[in-house]
Amino acid sequence: MVNKELLKEIESRYKLDVLNDLIFADNRQVYFMFDLKQKPLMCQRIHGDLKILGISQINIIEARKLLDFIEPNNLLAEVEGKNNFIENIVNKFNTFDDELYLYVPIKKEASPLWLYVRLKRFQEQQIVLGQVVRVYNETPTNIIHYQKTYQDSLTRLFSRETLKMHMDYLKNTRNSYFMYLDIDGFKAINDKYGHQAGDKFLVDIANFFISKWEYNVLYYRLGGDEFAVYCYDHSEESIKMRAKQLVHDIENLNDITKELAISISVGIVKITDDVKDYHTLLNLGDEMMYQSKTKGKGNFTIYS
């Protein structure tokens, strides 16, 4: 049943007519609101049964505590970065002007429960009204398509499109570097063992990158035998050490790299507020990488 008394109170206090939107609602339809003038920011349930969302029936809760219900391990987070996923949701909420639609994964024992949420901001009254438009027990096809778009199909590393998105979203450039990697001698693998072996070698490199996961390093496949690495919380000395280690690791990856003397050439660009555009980083990284190649296999060059 609709809590008409609460709705009338909201209408009176905020001069909003929400009763007409909810009069035919049932308990499967969840509505909530945020009063942006409240400190700390609170979320108030207006209508609906939260149990269908896997959440206990809460009438009012501090907004930041809602983040505890979000599942950070999901397909969207694989693209946006697990460290950034929840932060991105908060940023979208804080910056949208009129209307916002979000897919939000809620923690559940086996796999996340996905909510498709509509948020409507009323600037004059300084409130946000929310509605759970749809509930998915499985990952929505839109999310799967999104993940496939931003994840390289062969290697499972991030794609060029993801790199562009990450750089577009980048706000803090402090102690950040971009690395452009090109495999030295990759053609020899295809020539001697065939293209299938070449593809497997690219997958082997990607699996090695994935196995070496660190919170401040993200790997991308740009295409062919070219890769990129975005590193933050790095000094110039630590990025040089990382480049040297990458050369050593690739040269000793497996029997093929040793037999055919496979290595990598690396171009490094320091990311700054003036040098963080996706195309600029690619162009400078590519230029530095080719300078490395002129020195011979297994070298790196830093843009200055």
How would you summarize the topology of this molecule?
Elements (H helix, E strand, L loop, with lengths): L3 H11 L4 H4 L8 E5 L6 E6 L12 E3 L12 H6 L4 H11 L3 E8 L6 E10 L4 E10 L4 H10 L9 H10 L6 E9 L1 H8 L1 H17 L5 E7 L2 E6 L4 H16 L3 H5 L3 E9 L6 H18 L4 E3 L2
Parallel strand pairs: 10-11
Antiparallel strand pairs: 1-2, 1-6, 2-3, 4-5, 5-6, 7-9, 7-10, 8-9
Would you write up a description of this structure?
The protein has 304 residues and is of the alpha+beta class. It has 2 domains: 4-145, Beta-Lactamase (2-Layer Sandwich), CATH 3.30.450; 151-302, Alpha-Beta Plaits, CATH 3.30.70. 38% of the residues lie in helices and 25% in strands. The protein is built from 11 helices and 11 strands. The chain is elongated. The N and C termini lie far apart (66 Å). 29% of the residues are buried. The mean pLDDT is 88.
Terminal CA distance reads 66 Å
CATH top level of the largest domain?
Alpha Beta
Q: Which band does the percent of strand residues land in? A: 25-35%
> How many strand elements?
11
Low-confidence spans: none
Strand order of the largest sheet: 3-2-1-6-5-4
Q: What structural class results from the helix and strand content?
A: alpha+beta
Per CATH, which architecture of the largest domain? 2-Layer Sandwich
Gyration radius (Cα, Å) is 25 Å
Outline type = elongated
Query: What is the CATH superfamily of the largest domain?
Result: Reverse transcriptase/Diguanylate cyclase domain
